[in-house]
């Protein structure tokens, strides 16, 4: 630019961009000279972007300056061209929406060309369906890539590149909100016997021979979800379980967090389910998660996203639609249900063949043994 002292304090600025996306040709834009820098306050392009979602990898502007209020223009000897990534969104994000780079890029890149909300969602969802989601730096984002992950929100997912279902559901939701889609909602799914049971995400193997007496029934309070989403308590049902496993020390489905216990701590630390003695019900390769072939799969709840009567499961890249969307989720995703309980070995043995719950070689002892009880996912909706 030469000696900045030869220029006045106010300098006109313009830039030639792609197509008609210019800056300062149809309007007067002035910059303030500060040292050897020209500062331009926020200003609009001369023409608006097309009314559709877009992603410009390199949005190039060729800059010119006028020291005499537009009578003559010169290109700076240095820094005459700028290139920036620009994401054009479908609509304005709600106030306070975090605009993480990866979040905005995911929507504008994969929804490019969209003019409606559903077009945008379909474009973004096509990437989630691959179960190979990456961040803006092309680094894979994992769903339980490490079973010990505690990342439960978008910031943690992007920072650690690993997360639980809540972080993945919120990630998808944030992508939509950054595009101005504000009617999508989180949908929490729990077993209808949520006070005592968890569910097993496919696949799990249940042997044909059962090792726990089906006639030994146990009560469980049934819960229901009202139209507005409120969960209410119902009657007590009596459930039968066909199999038991003797859990490893340090594993529990009902941790006392105040005492420092964690959900299935030993198994998560090992990256596989641990059992004492012979394990009758076992985890097997099943539904792939995001960049994870066989993610952790024993839960007390799961988080989905709902929009226009469609349930989206970002963690696994699956969607379920129609009035029976929740039934489809249960049928396609849930292998069975698990319950942790102390059972008297002698009492259980009275309902069938002699039983050795603690695998000590003696059956039908008068001892309380903490076991995990299993039942397969049968007909009827057992999630709410």
Descriptive account of the structure:
Helix content is 17%, strand content 30%. The protein has 384 residues and is α+β, with helices and mostly antiparallel strands. The strands form six sheets. A six-stranded antiparallel sheet has the order 14-13-21-20-9-16. A hairpin with a 2-residue loop joins strand 2 and strand 3. Helix 3 packs across helix 4. It starts with 9 loop residues before the first strand and ends in an 8-residue tail after the last strand. The relative contact order is 0.12. The mean pLDDT is 95.
* Secondary-structure-derived class: alpha+beta
Shape: elongated
Mean pLDDT: 95
Could you give the order of the helices and strands? EEEEEHHEHEHEEEEEEHEEEEEEHEHE
Compute the CA-based radius of gyration. 29 Å
Cα separation of the termini: 67 Å
**What is the number of independent domains?**
3
Low-confidence stretches: none
Binned strand content: 25-35%
Percent of residues in helices comes to 10-25%
Beta-strand segment tally: 21
Strand order, biggest sheet? Answer: 14-13-21-20-9-16
Helix tally equals 7
User: Which sheet architecture does the biggest sheet show?
Assistant: 6 strands, antiparallel
